[in-house]
Amino acid sequence: MNQCLQTIQDYGLRALGLGERLLPRSEFTLCEQVTLIGSGLIWNVYFAGLAVFFGFFLANALAVAKASRNGWLRKPAEWFIFLFRGSPLFIQFFLAYEILVQLPRAGIDVLGITIQTSWMTRAWAGALLVLILNTAAYSAEIFHGALRNLPKGELEAAEAYGMAGWTRWRRVVWPHAMRLAWPAYTNEAIFLFHATTLVFFSGFPAFQQRGDALYYANYFADKTFNPFVAYPIVAGYFVLLTLGLIALFGLVNRRLNRHLPGAAKKIRYRPNLIR
Amino acid sequence: MSCYLTTGNHMLFYASFGTVLLLLAVTAPAALLFGFGGALAVRSRLAGLRLFGRVYTSMVRGVPDIIFFLFVPIAMDQGFEWLRSRVYCDPSVPVRQGNEFIVCAAAKLPLSTSPEWVHQAYGLFLAVIAFAVVFGAFAANVLHGAMRAVPQAQLETAEAYGMTPRQVSRRILIPQMWTYALPGLANLWMILIKATPLLFVLGVEDIVYWARELGSAKTSAYSYPHPDWRLYYFLGVLAFYLLMTWGSERVFDRIRTRLSRGQATAAGEAMRKAAP
What mean pLDDT is reported for chain A? Predict the structure, then answer.
């Protein structure tokens, strides 16, 4: 027990580079595996949390642009969404890494100020950028679908109340679109959370062996030749966090549906109906 | 230039596109079969089979699929070798010795004496099984949902005609469910296309492998020295995938337009106004 506490102290924050520098090499205990894989989860939560947050705003802008009648707005949004929805995330990671590596190493001079670029090739920035763009494209498609499926009665009612333009958008269109889109958006968030495991398997190297949960699980499975311990551990972690995510999005769903008693059905994760 | 693009390795690169298409062609029916079995298992009358079906269909819900792609091939490989070691080797020697998984040479899969292509094919075989298992679970979700979407009255009418449960399934349920399953299955096809680069993670020499291999900087020791060209190779791979999904997307759009027609929604309203 004490030994396990010591392990947690040594490896609990290993994914951030704190604590013991060397990973365990032999005599892998269960405690070591659970701790180290759990510490890798920090990265999964970091990527998913920030990507969902920033992607949400970008997705709204894209959905509006795609629904716009102005071709100068609509076409770029359509191309962006097609590019990111039409290609595998795995390839996007590779490609983004190759592009980011091409940036000049010394930094870019803008008006006499040197902007450093080397940090963009690191996973925490580069992979996050890819994930934001990716989830924005998928979510924009969901939001766009919701905008298309607004009941026309709602729009007519808003007009009858004398609402138009921004007021109508803010008070009728957007809340209703969010309400319609939310179950599908929950699925997208879960899928994004699961996709964060791809980061260290694609172009982005794990700097000083600071990887995510799957990186460490793979490390243990490679070292022990035993996939039956490490992978179930990481799977268990993901099931727990997915349930947490569903609960969190369920709260928002309840709030979006609060004017319709009984309408807020439990969100069921249906992985097949998206992407 | 044309010389460069027709070197032996480039030919292997082009052939690896075939590998991806082969994987798609083999996996799609296999996954459908797995999914069908899973969906039928969920509806089974036997409690044990039903439990198995439930576990199978829900296993992909909370866990990233890449974990299965890493887990299933190793687990299958070790399972096969363990079975063979019980037959061909001394059964008293345990296969797990500390951190090693050891079987005697006769039980190795594939045998170390077999040629290179056998190793490749075996790797691809394990990959296909992993894909079929994971996408079978996805497909089981879709098909189960479709089976539940078939109107209950249809099944009850069939029963009233004196059909046995088996006849109801075969004559009423299964022919009718496809319309409900089609959108989900089409979507699944798109996911499957986009999951194929994971072959690289499984160690199969696919397009990602060759794009990295051919694109990386070559010194003058090679016949065609060049700097790091991986960016351009990946752009080619990207174009391949965009083309694949673009074709599927076109089909989607037609279906979606058809379903929006005449509906009291913003899209249906726009369509009505646009019509002369």
Answer: 85
For the domain made up of B2-274, give the CATH fold.
MetI-like fold (1.10.3720)
Q: Does B200 touch chain A (CB under 8 A)?
A: yes
What b/e sequence results for A213-235 when a residue is b if at least 16 CB atoms lie within 10 Å of its CB, and e otherwise? bbbbbbbbbeebebbeebbebbb
Tell whether A87 lies on the interface with B, counting CB pairs under 8 A. Answer: yes
Q: How many other CB atoms are found less than 10 A from the CB of residue B266?
A: 21
Q: Do A86 and B267 touch (CB under 8 A)?
A: no
CATH class of the structural domain A39-273: mainly alpha
Instruction: Decide if pLDDT at B1 tops 70.
Output: no
Q: In this predicted structure, what is the pLDDT of residue B31?
A: 92
CB nearest A98 (choices: B71, B200, B230) = B230
Residue B238 has a pLDDT of: 92
Say yes or no to pLDDT of A270 above 60: no
CA-based nearest residue to A32, from A272, A223, A183: A223
What long-range pairs does A231-236 form, CB within 8 A, spacing at least 24?
A231/B67, A231/B70, A231/B71, A233/A33, A233/A34, A233/A37, A234/A37, A234/B67, A235/B62, A235/B63, A235/B67
Nearest to A133, CA basis, from A93, A179, A180, A173: A93
pLDDT band at A272 (very low <50, low <70, confident <90, very high): very low
Domain locations along chain B: 2-274
Residue A268 — very low, low, confident or very high, per pLDDT cuts 50/70/90? low
Burial class of residue A103, CB neighbours in 10 A (0-12, 13-18, 19+): middle
Instruction: For this complex, say whether ipTM is above 0.85.
Output: no
Query: Which of A150, A153, A214 faces B66 most closely, judged by CB atoms?
Result: A214
Q: What does chain A come to in residues?
A: 275
Q: Is A155 exposed, middle or buried (0-12, 13-18, 19+ CB in 10 A)?
A: middle
Question: Do B246 and A82 count as a contact with CB atoms less than 8 A apart?
Answer: yes
Within 8 A by CB and 6+ apart from B99, the residues are: A26, A28, A223, A224, A225, A226
pLDDT of residue A45: 94
Q: Would you kindly state where each structural domain of chain A is located, as residue ranges?
A: 39-273
